[in-house]
Amino acid sequence: MTTKYIKKILEAKVYEVAIETPLDAAPLLDDRLGNRIFLKREDLQPVFSFKLRGAYNKIAWLSPEERKNGIVTASAGNHAQGVALAAQHLGIPAIIVMPKTTPQIKVNAVRRRKAKAVLFGDSYDEACEHALALSKEQGLPFVHPFDDPEVIAGQGTIGMEIIRQHPGPIEAVFVPVGGGGLIAGVAAYIKYLRPETKIIGVEPEGSAVLYHSLKAGKRVTLDKVDIFADGVAVKLMGEETFRICKKCVDEVIRVNTDEMSAAIKDIFDETRSIAEPSGALAVAGIKKYVEATGARQENLVGIISGANINFSRLQHIAERAELGEDRECLFALNLKEKPGALKAFCRVLGPRPITEFNYRFSDPSQAFVFIGLAVKGREERESTLAMLNGKGYRVKDLTGNELAKLHIRHMVGGLVKQDINEVVYRFEFPERMGALLDFLSHMADTWNISLFHYRNDGATYGQVLVGVQVPKAERKAFQRFVNEVGYPYTDETENPAYHLFLGDPDRTTCD
């Protein structure tokens, strides 16, 4: 029964370290969306995240005997800082296992709280296995990041505050979803007191563990997760959190990287604070909900769950925000290779601002152009595409092409006008020393790397595009290598953006 959580939430001890965060109005979003938007500001907590609530509540309810020798946990970020602060406040030792890929700023934050940071593995799952082994070996309580009743109750105090701060009707509360601790706690409390209020989870499209689990009627383990919103990059949600979500969650909305980036900008415009990608999920979900339902004059609450973001990620986020707001479009097109062709094209474009222009000579008769244009929305993008095609230009819309956005726009050029048996894969390399060497060490000596492009947006994984010359007879062996090396990947060999600007344009068209 979820009703047991009401008492737990009311008795939670979170306020010994956490603050009651404000529920701020968002007038700019109100005007744009035609609804009354409220932002629950968990980014203002002492560790800039809601995670402090659940971590402290769990540790505070341990008996003196249980916690006398300390506690252990695993986390790559916000939960780690919450546990570290809770343990420091209670005067007990804490061991926090973090992946080797964890940015140094987060490791330092944990150590400043006098916790012991142990770096192990490349992912949360590997770090968690090691933490559980330490817990068993040393007899220390393990503080789970989400799948624990006391953690869930601690996060549920956010729902309690929302109801107290907004006593009037609330049509929907939008909650970021990772392992499910936050949405389970908030949903259990609000649904008990306000069953008419919708609880809507918001997840990245590439790590929608709750969406797929609810659809299947059971917990689903994802094969891979998108790491842009690393705070919610979970392959399997908690058993207890899923039980509560099945009973209390009305809907799950999925959003993409561009929509999260645009939401980060929206939050900045409203508050002058910078949310992390997972922290901006709720606002992205509100925008998508309003667009899909046509909701008007409703009271909609979004939980801004955290603001622990590396400064180096901001350039990438700003770049993607324009696409997420449909204020920029990316096109590929053919231009005749003759004097005056570019001038004629610009005259056809008219006053539309060009945000990016990349040109590559292809052959004496044609050139390929990668162009970014500022637009005022999806309708203008579509009308511009139709207009250019109507004027005789062969244009392909790459606005939704992830390869184009991550790599091609930064490396246009280098066409290969012959068959070199090239396969092209997009990888996520862990940000640690030796990741590339590990990759190359597993690769057969007979395969030659023909293309390589690396981008880091300040996350724990780098985005890598690799071209490798592999004879057709060895493609199955290469696929086995790709699977065994263990890095998340996408096969981009047939992506038209690759063929237009890096491969053989005769294998695709701009139509």
Number of strands: 17
Query: Ranges with pLDDT <50 over ≥5 residues?
Result: none
Mean pLDDT: 88
CATH topology-level fold name of the largest domain = Rossmann fold
Structural class: alpha/beta
The top level CATH class name of the largest domain: Alpha Beta
What CATH architecture of the largest domain do you see? 3-Layer(aba) Sandwich
Beta-strand portion reads 15-25%
Backbone shape: globular
How are the strands of the largest sheet arranged? 1-2-9-6-7-8
| Rg estimate, integer Å | 25 Å
As a percent range, the share of helical residues equals: 25-40%
Instruction: Give the domain tally.
Output: 4
The biggest beta sheet reads: 6 strands, mixed
If you had to describe this structure to a student in words, what would you say it looks like?
With 511 residues, the protein is an alpha/beta fold. The chain folds into four domains: 4-50 and 148-312, 3-Layer(aba) Sandwich (Rossmann fold); 63-138, Rossmann fold (3-Layer(aba) Sandwich); 326-400, Alpha-Beta Plaits (2-Layer Sandwich), CATH 3.30.70; 412-507, Biosynthetic Threonine Deaminase, domain 3 (3-Layer(aba) Sandwich), CATH 3.40.1020. The chain is built from 20 helices and 17 strands. Strands 1-2-9-6-7-8 form a six-stranded mixed beta sheet, with helices on both faces. It has a four-stranded antiparallel beta sheet with strand order 11-12-10-13. Strand 4, helix 6 (104-112) and strand 5 (116-119) form a beta-alpha-beta unit. Helix 8 (149-165) crosses helix 9 (181-193). The longest helix is centred in the first third of the chain and has 17 residues, at 149-165. The termini are far apart. The model has no long low-confidence stretch (mean pLDDT 88).
